[in-house]
Amino acid sequence: MSLPVYAGPFERLWYYLFRLFCILVLLFLVLPVLIIVPLSFNAEPYFTFTHGMLSLDPAAFSLRWYRDVFQNGMVDPTLPFASWAWLSDVWQNSQWIHSAKNSFLIAIGATVLSTILGTLAALGLSQESMPANRLITAILISPIIVPIIVTSASIFFLFARIGLTNTYLGIVLAHTVLGTPFVVITVTAAMSGFDRSLIRAAQMLGARPHVVFFRIIMPLIMPGVISGALFAFGTSFDEVVAVIFLTDFEQRTIPRQMWSGIREQISPSILAVASILVCLSILLLTVMELLRRRSERIRGLAPS
Amino acid sequence: MSDHVVSVEDKAVLKKQLSTALRLQKFRAVLLVAPLLLFVLITFLVPIASMLTRSFYSPDFAREMPATAATISSWSGTDLPDENVYAALVQDLTSAQARKTIGSIANAVNMEVSGARSLIMKLGRNLDDIDPPYKQALDKLDPKWSNSETWQALQNLTPEYTGRFYLTAVDLLSDGHAEISLQPEDRRIYAPLFLRTFAIGAIVTLICLLLGFPVAYWLSALPLRYANVLMIFVLLPFWTSLLVRTTAWIVLLQNQGVINSLLVWAGAVGDGNRLPLIFNSVGTVIAMTHILLPFMILPLYSVMKTIPPSYLRAARSLGANQLTAFVRVYLPQTKPGVAAGCLLVFILSLGYYITPALVGGESGTLISNIIAHHVQKSLNWGLAAALSALLLLSVLILYWAYNRLAKVDGLKLG
C-alpha cells in the first residue's frame, strides 16, 4: 500500500494521516502495558513519574518495590540480601512467592488436563465419521462464551455440595474447563490443514495405527497442540474470577493477590509484580511466534 | 486388465465389511470425544443448569414453614389474613426456632421486604410470651404485623415454582395476584443495569471497530515481514495479564496518575480540577476498549488478508475513484470479519467482571458485578440465578448469530 506517484495532495495528506492514526492506535495498545515497567522502579511510593525520574537522576530509581515483592511475608527480613538463608526464607514464606507457586501449580495441572482432553476430542471431531459434529464443537467451545461469572458461580454451587471448594483439585478442574476450548480450537485447526493422504500412505506402507499416530499425526499437529496448551496455560494463569469464588487464602494465585492488593490499597509493589508478568508475557509471545514459524515451515509454506 | 467381475456374494461381503469398518471408525471418533464431552457435561453444563433452576425453583421456604405455606395461599391479599394464618406462622416459627433455622427464614423474607428480618427475629425472641388470639398479640408486639406488605412477602415466598426472581430481575413488582406493575422509578436497579451493560458493550464495540478497522486494514496491506513485527503491538497486550492491564489503567487514569499529570503539566487543565477519568463509566470504557481491541483486530485482519488486492486495482482501473472502490468493492468483502469482531467484542464485554469492579466505581459497574454481589454478599441466590439466566440468554443468542454470520466453526485465534 505504498503511495502512488500520481497521488494528489489530498490523497497524500490522507495517506499520512491514516498511517499516523494507525500508529497512534498501536501505541494506545502497548504503551499502557509498557509504561508500568519504568514506573515500577520509582523510588517514591507514587504512581507517576517524579521530577527526578524525568531528569534521569539515578537516585530517583530504585529496586525497593521488587525487594518488597520478595520480602513481604518473610520471617526475618534482616537477613543479608541474596544469602542462602534469605533465599530459603523467601522461598518458604514470601507472600508473592507463595502465590506464584500456586499459580504455576494450578496452571500446569490445568494445562496438562486440558491438553490431553482437548487434543483427544479434537482428533475425534476432525474425523468425517464423527456424528453431530457441529453441535458437539459448539458445546465444547461454549466455556469461552458463557460469562465467567455465571460459570464460576455455578461451579461454586456444585463444588460446595461435594466439598471441592478451597481445594487445589477444585480450582484445577475449573480452570481445565476454561482451558479446553482453546486446545480444541487450535488442534482442530491444525488437523484441518492436515493432508489426510499422509495417513493413508502410512497405512498402505504397513504402519500400525499407533505408529501412524505417533510418527505421522503427532509431529504434524504438535504446533497446534503446543499453542493450545499455551493458551490454556495463559488462561489459567490469568484467571481470577473462578479463583475468587472457589478458593481460599491458601490457594491464592498471583492475579488473586493483585486483585486484593488493588482493592485494598494499591502499592507500587503491584507495579513490580505487573512488570515481571509483562516480561513473562513477552516470553510467551516469543514462543508462540517461533511455533507459528515452525508450523508454517513444516507444512511447506514459505516462511514469512 | 482382465475383465474380472465381482460376484453378487462378493458384493454383499464387501458391503458388510465396509459398513463394519465405518461403524468402527465412528465408534473410535466418538470414543475420542467422549472424555472431554463427559467432563464438560459434569463440571460445566450440569452445574450451570442446576444453578439456573434456582431462578424458578425455591422450595426452601415452603419446606421450612409448612403450616404457613398451606394456610396463606388462600389469602386474598386485600385485607389482613385470618387468625389461622397467624397461628400457623407462630407454630412454624416455634419449630424453626427449635431447629435454629429462623435466621435464614428471616433473611429470605428480608429480601422481599426490607426490615422484615428484625421483625421476624423479634417475634422469634418473644414466641414464649404471646398467646392467642395471635392477631392482636402480633400487632401489639410490632404494628408492622398489621401491614399487609409483610404478609404479601410471606405469600410470595410460598410457591415452590416461582417467577418472582425474574420479575425482580427486570424491575417488575408483583402483588401476588396477577397484578404486575413496574417498580417505582427510584427503586429500579436491574433494568437500568442491563441497559448500562448493553450500552457500554455497544460503545466499546463501536470504538473498537473505529480504532481496529484502519489498523487491520493497514496491517493486511503491509508486506508480511513488517506486518508481523507490528502485529506484536497487538499481541503483546493480548497476552498480558488482564490484571496487569487493569492496573496499568488505574495508574494512568487516576487523579494523580500519568495522564492527569501530563495534562496539568501541559496546562490543558488546572491542578485543582483534574479530570475524573477513573472509578466511573469513562474508566470502564477506556480500559475495556484497550483490553478488547485485539479481539477486534485479529478477526478483521484474518479476513482482510484473504481479500485479493487485485480487486481494488481492477475497480480503480475500471474508473472508480479511491472512495468508491473502497466502499463498493472492499468494504462488502470485510463483512464477515466485521461481524465476527463486533460480536466477539460485544459478547465478551457483556460478561466483564474484573475491570468494571476495579475501575468502574459506582457508575461503571455492570450486570456481572451485581450477580457476584448476590452470590457472595446478599446470598440472594435465586435472584443471582435469574440475572445469570437473562445474561446467558442474551450471550447465547449473540453466539448463535456469531456462528451464522462469521461462517467459521468456533473462534479463530491469532
Question: Features of this protein?
Answer:
heterodimer; A: 304 residues; B: mainly alpha; two-stranded antiparallel sheet; 2 strands
Detailed description of the structure:
The complex is a heterodimer of chains A (304) and B (414). The radius of gyration of chain A is 25 Å and the shape is globular. Chain A has a domain at 96-298: MetI-like fold (Orthogonal Bundle), CATH 1.10.3720.10. Chain A has helices spanning 9-39, 51-54, 64-71, 84-93, 95-125, 133-145, 148-162, 168-192, 197-204, 209-238, 241-246, 254-264, 268-298. In chain A, helix 1 packs across helix 13, helix 8 (168-192) crosses helix 10 (209-238) and helix 10 runs antiparallel to helix 13 (268-298). Chain A is mainly alpha-helical and 304 residues long. Chain B is mainly alpha-helical and 414 residues long. Chain B folds into three domains: 1-53; 60-162, no CATH class; 192-406, MetI-like (MetI-like fold). Chain B has a two-stranded antiparallel sheet. In chain B, strand 1 (172-174) and strand 2 (180-182) form a beta hairpin. In chain B, helix 5 (102-112) runs antiparallel to helix 6.
